[in-house]
Amino acid sequence: MPLTDVDFINPVISSLEETFDTMLNCKIARVGLSLMENNTALYPVSGIIGINGKTAVGTVVLTMAESVALRAASTLLMTDMSDLNEDVMDAVGELTNMVAGATKARLGQYNLSMGLPSVFYGTQCHIHFPANAHPIAIPFQSNWGALALEVGFTFMN
């Protein structure tokens, strides 16, 4: 049976929900799903990581409002973070790594590997997805603010 985006995207969604719940004690609620039109991150703070293997190559982006990045970093670092500094960006990278690692574990049968996360700040962050990927944006809402997953995979036969 051929692989589909759903085979890979649902584990990413579950991994994000679990990471925010267990690591940050923050409930998130999905508020939509749409194809990405311009491959630009929805929010100004974005952690990006590549996932690849013999069956699939993909990009996973965890993008969030500044308020989410600050609260997540404050929780992870157990100190009040009030400005977007290097520690906050490192925390966003670690969150991205946790989500990708949990996704990799959920998709263990595909023997995937993942790169190191990169973190970007800015309102016009253009994301490169693999050729022939059809990336989707999955927005979430939390008490801390808005965040989203942006995910695109290409599958090999």
Structural account:
The protein is of the alpha+beta class. It has one domain: CheC-like (Chemotaxis protein chec, 3-Layer(aba) Sandwich), CATH 3.40.1550.10. Helices cover 34% and strands 29% of the residues. It is built from three helices and eight strands, in the order αββββααββββ. Strands 1, 2, 3, 4, 5, 6, 7 and 8 form an eight-stranded antiparallel sheet that branches. Helix 1 packs across helix 3 and helix 2 packs across helix 3. The longest helix is centred in the middle third of the chain and has 21 residues. The chain is globular, with a radius of gyration of 15 Å.
Q: Which strand-content bin applies to the residues?
A: 25-35%
CATH names the topology as Chemotaxis protein chec
How far from one another are the termini?
Answer: 10 Å
* Strand element count: 8
Largest sheet: 8 strands, antiparallel
Mean pLDDT score: 92
Top CATH class: Alpha Beta
Q: What is the N-to-C order of secondary-structure elements (H for helix, E for strand)?
A: HEEEEHHEEEE
Give the topology.
Elements (H helix, E strand, L loop, with lengths): L4 H20 L3 E3 L3 E2 L9 E8 L3 E9 L1 H12 L8 H21 L6 E2 L3 E4 L14 E7 L2 E11 L2
Helix pairs in contact: 1-3, 2-3
Short synopsis of the structure:
This protein is an alpha+beta fold and 157 residues long. It has helices spanning 5-24, 66-77, 86-106; strands at 28-30, 34-35, 45-52, 56-64, 113-114, 118-121, 136-142, 145-155. The chain is 34% helix and 29% strand.
